[in-house]
Design a protein that fits this description.
nucleotide-binding; D-amino Acid Aminotransferase, Chain A, domain 1; Rossmann fold; alpha+beta; ATP binding; single chain; 8-stranded antiparallel beta sheet; Dna Ligase, domain 1
């Protein structure tokens, strides 16, 4: 059944909220932003057609306050709620509450969100769809369970402990030896309970020198499921992605077709609708890939898939939510260029400590083949309560090298952020590293090369510029007019 969406409340802030507003504006759909008291002057609040305060600064009192957000949607007369990514985006209870309130949930069904949020349940679907998964053991209740599995399956260390209800790199602990098991086990259970309210763990074989490949899928309510090809998300720090690219430099055409259609097969088995991503670990030693998880939401890095395919994924989510058939066939999805995305976080590039304060100067990269998805403006305050992501910088090119060259210009020459620290120097060092340019890296690239990357930092500041001017004035004063003057 088709229905018209004319007013969307966006249950998010910053970069994701602004991104969703862009598509809504293109479609002449009214938008309502929600904000906390700390975000009353935030960029997403300024851009929305209207905004409603939903609580105090701490997320539990505002952006995670389900009752207040739904109350706000009903108050302003919204038809639908889009959750973006993070916060309540993969909360099945919230999705149900939205639907029970008579509003349209722009995303997959609550049942699918709940099933895929449980890694053990997700693995069962993968097995039914004949999708290979990483060798491991589910529902770990004790250290003895892990030791028994290691002995019976002849598993070598390292292994990985993961929160069964986890995601986003939380509740994941790498274990290098049997001696480390007790501490790692308690750490993983503690992190899982704090982050997800459930300390159920699973243990998996750790695949060294692996690559992280994910496939973007979109499905409508009429049984049509297609893929929009893959992204490489291997460059990570503390299991958090930092630079992504599409397509993947790891895969040849045969592997690409196999992994993409494997993702489609799994999503059909699940009964998926809307936009979603199937994540895989790729073992470069064996050229085999293993199912990791399904992300039941819009991904941070969806923009590079849009750049290489020309499709609007947020727009497709709106189509599905309205009950329409997907407007594109699988045979019509073509990849015609390469794209990179760098996540600009407000963090110290040396130690990754969060950086708070006011942005005193902001100069954005411009020019051909550059796409900026920003969540801040010059003069904006960066509060200490939320995710440190302030901007996504994307570049495209006919080839991978061309996209890298454009990213080099965007980060190294055009971008200026003052008043807070960002990881821009680290991002620039990574894309200039010979191994990255050659496409030779793994999920441990940053930790293995951190000292080398730090040595490549070239930080500029207002003080540097002032010093240059002072030296110039002193030189002219001491030596008189120069020949070129």
């Amino acid at each position: 059944m088709e229905r018209k969406i004319s007013h969307v409340l966006i249950a998010n802030r910053g970069v994701p909220a602004v991104r969703i507003m862009d598509t809504c504006r293109d479609r002449r759909i009214k938008t309502t932003a929600v904000y906390s008291t700390a975000d009353r002057l935030a960029y997403h609040v300024r851009l929305a057609d209207q905004a409603v305060c939903v609580g105090e600064a701490p997320p539990l009192e505002s952006y995670l306050n389900m009752e207040n957000i739904i109350k706000a949607a009903l108050q302003v007369g919204a038809d639908a709620i889009h959750p973006g990514w993070g916060f309540l985006a993969e909360n099945a209870d919230f999705a149900e509450m939205v639907q029970d309130a008579g509003l349209v949930w722009i995303g997959p069904s609550p049942e699918v969100i709940r099933a895929m949020g449980d890694k053990v349940e997700a693995k069962k679907y993968a097995r039914r769809a004949n999708v290979p998964s990483i060798p491991g053991i589910d529902n770990v209740s004790s250290i003895e369970d892990i030791k028994k599995w290691i002995e019976e399956e002849k598993v070598d260390f390292p292994i990985m402990l993961k929160a069964a209800k986890g995601g986003g790199g939380k509740g994941m602990v790498k274990v290098e030896s049997e001696e480390e098991l007790p501490i790692a086990f308690n750490q993983a259970k503690s992190e899982a309970m704090k982050a997800f309210g459930d300390d159920t763990l699973l243990a998996e074989k750790y695949i060294s020198h692996s690559r992280h490949i994910e496939v973007q899928v979109i499905a409508d309510t009429h049984g049509k499921v297609i893929h929009l090809y893959e992204r490489e998300c291997t460059l990570q720090r503390r299991n958090q992605k930092i630079i992504e690219e599409a397509p993947s430099p790891t895969l040849d055409d045969d592997l690409r077709e196999e992994i993409c259609f494997t993702a489609v097969r799994l999503m059909r088995e699940i009964g998926y609708t809307s936009a979603g991503t199937v994540e895989f670990i790729f073992d470069t030693n064996t050229n085999k890939f293993y199912f990791l998880e399904v992300n039941t939401r819009l991904q941070v890095e969806h923009g590079i898939t849009e750049l290489i395919t020309g499709l609007d994924i947020v727009g497709l989510m709106l189509d599905v939510a309205e009950g329409k058939k997907l407007p594109v066939k699988q045979s019509e999805v073509k990849v015609n260029r390469w794209a990179l995305e760098a996540r600009l976080n407000a963090e110290d590039p040396f130690n990754f400590n969060p950086s708070f304060g006011t942005i005193t100067r902001l100069q954005l990269p411009q020019g051909p083949a550059v796409r900026i998805s920003q969540g801040v403006y010059e003069g904006a305050d960066i509060p200490p309560y939320y995710d440190s992501l302030i901007m996504l910088i994307m570049t495209a090119g006919q080839t991978r090298e061309a996209a890298i060259m454009t990213m080099d210009r965007a980060l190294g020459r055009d971008l200026r952020v003052e008043g807070i620290k960002t990881i821009a120097p680290l991002l620039l060092a990574i894309i200039r590293h010979p191994s990255f340019r050659a496409g030779k890296f793994s999920t441990t690239f940053i930790e293995e090369h951190m000292n080398e990357l730090v040595s490549m930092f070239k930080e500029k500041s207002t003080e540097d510029e002032v010093l240059k001017i002072a030296k110039f004035v002193a030189r002219v004063s001491a030596l008189g007019p120069q020949p070129w003057m």
